[in-house]
Amino acid sequence: MQRIINIERFYIAPCAKIVDNILSIGDEQNGTTAVKADVTDWNIEEYTLESQLNVLYPKHTIEEIWGCTYRQGDFAETHCHRGFDKSFVWFVDTCTHCSPLIFPDPEHPWMPPLASIRPSRGNLIVFNSNDIHYVPPHTCKHHRMVLSGNMSLNKEVQ
Ligand SMILES: [Zn+2]
Hints:
By secondary structure, the chain is mainly β. The chain has helices spanning 16-25, 47-56; strands spanning 7-11, 35-36, 38-39, 60-70, 75-79, 86-93, 101-103, 115-117, 123-128, 133-135, 144-153. It contains two helices and eleven strands; from the N terminus they run E-H-E-E-H-E-E-E-E-E-E-E-E. It is globular. Zinc ion binds next to loops.
């Protein structure tokens, strides 16, 4: 029997300035993370996303936000965000053919993944930080741009 993982989906309209901002920062991680694409540092400021998350998750604190620019062939190795409670991905510039975000089933690797999220511009996906996931190599000619981040549960509600 496969587990059911909790994935929440919201929509926040991204503005063009976010994409320009991520592109102008470029890569600050030199391929040292699981994401083999251009990755910014961990503290991008994005007011629209932060204010919406604060409303949606009042018991959580946003600890980190970073931007990723996947070019053709870029991908993310299987990883999770241990040490946090909730993690998120906001698709700020993607098309329907862009590589999905896949949550494999580590207990039953021969079975279909627990979830496969098709990117859709403006969709915000929130998942448990311990759930492992990856992004297969990006095949589109354009950039696949996302903002990702981690939240922790506030002490008083733990
Ligand atoms: Zn695409």
